[in-house]
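User: I'm writing a tutorial on reading structure tokens. Could you give me a worked example: one chain, its sequence, then its tokens, then a sentence or two explaining what the tokens reveal?
Assistant: Sure. Here is the example chain.
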Amino acid sequence: MDPLAILQGYQVEHGRIVDPGRYRGEPAYTPYFHRMWMEQLADQQDCDSGVFWLHEGDWQLFPDLVGSTQVILFTDESGHVTAYAQDHTERPD
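And here are its predicted structure tokens:
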């Protein structure tokens, strides 16, 4: 999956998506991880949220994620996707 191809359809300013729609106001990496979640590639997931443990390749693709170990996504009842990164030092086995 090419993250740059996924992001081509979105206008990003200061690391945030400014286009109207389900990703408005969210970090630029949101569509990429959302697509992976929809393809059931999240490390942990249910119908309302997906958790991704970050790796070197993720930090190379999205330098804003350096220093974070997880990306967490969830959707609300209107379909808006919210994403945030955090440093969670205990990785599951």
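What the tokens reveal: The two ends are 26 Å apart (CA to CA). The chain is about 20% helix and 25% strand.
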